[in-house]
Amino acid sequence: MIGREAELRVLHGDLDAVESGAARALAVVGDPWVGKSALLAAAAELARARSWAPGAVISGADAARLAPVLAVLRAAAGSPVLIVLDDLHRAPDDALAAVATLAAEVAAAGGLLALAYRPGGASEALHVAVGQVARELPVGELVIGPLDRDECDGLLPPGISPLARARLHERAGGTPGYMLALAAASESAAPPPAVVRSVAREIASLGAAAADVAAAAAVAGDRFAVDLAAELADLDEAAALATVDELVAARIVLPCSLPRHFRFRAPIVGEAIYAEIDADRARTLHRRAARALERRQAPPAELADHVRAAALPGDRAAAELLASVGERELLRDPVAAARWLGAADALAPAEDVELHRWVRPMHARALWAAGRLEECRTALRAVRETGACGTPEELARLAVLEAGVERLLDGAARADEVVARAEEELAGDPVAGALLSIERTLGHWFAGEWESIAPAAERAAACARLAGRRDLEVEAVALITLGHTYLGRQESAEGSLVAATALVERMDNHELARSLRALTFIGHSGFAVERYDDAARVLRRGLLITEATGERVWRVGLSTMLAASERWRGRLAAALEVSVAGAEDARLLGNDQFTIWARSVLAWVQLDRGEIDAAVAEAEAARAALARAGSSPRAWLPECTLGAIQVATGEFADARESILAGGGGAGLPRVEPSFRSHWYELLAHAELGAGRVEEARRWLGAAEPLVADLPLPRRRGELLRGWAAVALAEGEAARAAVLAGESVECFRDHPLDAARSSWLAGRALLAAGLTRRARARLVAAREGLASCGADRDRAAVDAELDDLAPADEATGVLAKLTRREGQVARLVATGATNRDIAARLAISERTAERHVSRAMARLSVTSRAALAAAVERDRGDGGR
Tell me, which fold does domain 5-145 have in CATH? Predict the structure, then answer.
């Protein structure tokens, strides 16, 4: 049981005590959904594992079922037995009266009596029954409480981001059952129906007064003051306090550190109570809350949700208050801001055009920042209905917002129309010009028009400098950097990257909050030109800003680029954590463009870790998102990633087709030029796997000029590794070893790739007959792969090292072979084909062929028949 190690130790101790002859009882006490029944089930399983006599588990201590339990005890015949009475707080009085008799029988039989009940539901009769048990048996009490964050993480299914896990833990108050129910209903913000029903039963057992105060408290909030709850419930404070004491005794609410303030035992409990309040009563309670807080001169943000819930359409004052609060919260909590601004727009009088013109643009911006893109598109249509007004910058930002939404929702043509119209209407204003030129540049990026990115961004940068706007200049320079990077212009890219990074370092987080996509592009460029530390620093800063502001859209891009950067640095555990968070954020956004990007990168990381099935699932999900979207600036990524997986699993023909389909054909036109050489290397490995050496040469030849234009270490390392693999396939083992060794040197700052090149060097040295040097390279590869967390590749290298171990009993000619080569040679002597050998030794046919070739080389023979004859001669000579 996750998070219950201490409780399990207590159970083991009690079971040990009973086996030593000391019968006893254990009272398991905890709130609803905390895991009492699960712990008792674990106790029953432990008893079965110890071969105890069959026991009994009774829920609610039904009196009619206690008689058979007594029979179970008497049939135990001296063997230890466990009797479980679960949910004793629900037991009728006659059943509780019989518990003492049962305890006496357990004492006589030498067993363990386990009782479970809620501390808040313990009646006087239950306390008496437990006291009677204590007269018959020593009673230990095991109080089960909520789990902490780390413990709860182990309960949740994979694929949930750290932020989502934190929210689940907070809503559930650490209660495992609540947390699992919330996770299962993750698409719904409403409390799960089973939780609502459970809490309703708790409230119903307390009476009408407690129900009224609980409802008032749920409207007041998760934490509430007694005087406010009293006013909402229309009670005097003394009566309300007495009722709250009743709720505390039932553990519905718990005291806070502040006097006369209380909280629900978990936020979901308050949500469940609120869900049962009918709409008219809820509106009345919220109206009372708003008036009470106004009298207490509470800040507007405290009034906002009550005003929103209490007001009716046409209430101008309510709309203005909500709009003011939403405006203030826009950069701090866009989800709440969107809620308040949407309510303000709905409440504003239909004829009040000016109020709508103020509210609707803010509402659209809040929806964008909250990642609710379809709703943002609808809100922007509402903006057009009333007509936008404001400064040229405000109008340009609205156009940029609309274009951005259209691009992400697959309306690229519509986005270009919006930008063109705004350029015409706002011509001459440098700030508007900068904003619209940046958006125009993004259009080139989305369309894969690599040559147009830097020139368009240069125009945007000029406008930004003319206007003296550093926040716009940093976006433009980031895009200039990206444009140069894509085209392999190393010097220009690095110069622009230095300029962009310098601008970022001079800006505070508040200023950068409006330029988050700039940080994404700077991180992308830093990653592309192999300045990983710079990239990671900028991307992490961007993620910190999104945590402070609640911005959701560009958080996916920041997470995804950080995961890619960590992957290239060989930090696969960190890459997995960030990429899972990015994929979860993309899922919550429900946007195919971000899903394509995030889930492809997650698949890539899982491939490197050796989690093949998970990687395939993520790549397929990204491919499905692309099919729905129709187009994407990352259209190549899902298919190419699937191709990389297929290379790793030996599906070489499929890999070739996947990479070419993703890249758009032999020239890979969909892939930015600076990254094509990476896929050419993978295509070369796919061709070699299929035995097409000349085709592999052709792909590496296509990579040569690209690497020459952008001769960065990783790119040179990949190219050298490709040529090393070709040399090995052509039988030039010594040359292959040299090229692979040079590749290792290129990958000095890329430990994962260095390990893979070392692995190839080891295989080449082995083919050259240099076993000692081969072993050293393979050991280095194994250590590198292990340190990165590439478990599947590490296991493969371990197998090759195991093959290098000398044959245990080989003598004579066979003593020259490794253990695995000796096994293969003996099978060849029986007439086995490579397929037969592969099946017998659980290896691939290609590996079987490699062992045959090595064995022939070591024994200086040139055919399988000659190898078989050598084995037979060795046997005939008795191995001399």
Answer: Rossmann fold (3.40.50)
Question: What residue type is assigned to position 765 of the chain?
Answer: L
Lowest-confidence range among 311-315, 558-562, 814-818?
A: 814-818
The helix (run of H) or strand (run of E) holding residue 144 is strand 139-144
**Does this chain's domain 390-403+411-551 share its CATH topology with 573-802?**
yes
Distance CA 799, CA 794 (A): 9
> Does the domain formed by 390-403+411-551 have CATH 3.30.450.40?
no
Tens digits of residue pLDDT in 129-150: 999 999 999 999 999 999 998 8
Q: Is the pLDDT of residue 572 over 80?
A: yes
Label residue 590 left, alpha or beta by phi (over 0 means left) and psi (-120 to 50 means alpha): left
In the Cβ-directed half-sphere of 768, how many Cα atoms lie within 13 Å? 20
Answer yes or no: is pLDDT of 566 > 60. yes
**pLDDT of the residue at 287:** 95
Q: How many CA atoms lie within 13 A of 782 on its CB side?
A: 16
Q: And the tokens for 817? A: 């072979």
- 339-358 pLDDT, tens digit per residue, is 999 999 999 999 999 999 99
Q: Residue 538: which of 515, 560, 517, 522 has the closest Cα? A: 522
- pLDDT exceeding 70 applies to what percent of the chain? 95
Domains of the chain, residue spans = 5-145, 151-184, 390-403+411-551, 573-802, 805-876
Please spell the DSSP secondary structure of 620-639, one letter per residue.
Answer: HHHHHHHHHH---TTTTHHH
- Tell me which residue of 569, 570, 500 sits closest to 541, measured CA to CA: 500
Residue closest to 700 by CA, chosen among 723, 727, 673: 723
CATH 1.10.10.10 fits 805-876, yes or no: yes
pLDDT at 45: 93
Give backbone dihedrals phi and psi of 627, rounded to 5 degrees, phi first.
Answer: -60, -35
The tokens describing 605, both together, are 């990381």
